[in-house]
Design brief:
By secondary structure, this protein is mainly alpha-helical. The mean pLDDT is 80. It has two helices and no strands.
């Protein structure tokens, strides 16, 4: 085998590996109703939300932030 044949085989293995890992996710994807239902169930289970943030305000009278 020459270098071109080896690189061609490596490329074919790469393509087949990508297809092996990506196609099952596409072919067994849930329908939209099932996805929305699971998402809504997750949202319904949320009791509270906490976040850190910084708020900036500008005073119109002194034009300062």
């Amino acid at each position: 085998m020459n270098k071109f044949q080896i690189s061609n085989i490596k490329f074919q293995i790469l393509i087949l590996s990508a297809a092996y890992f990506l196609l099952p996710a596409v072919s067994f994807a849930d329908n939209l109703d099932a996805i929305v239902s699971r998402l809504q169930k997750t949202y319904d289970g949320i009791q509270d939300i906490q976040a850190n943030f910084t708020q900036f305000t500008t005073s119109a009278s002194i034009k300062q932030t």
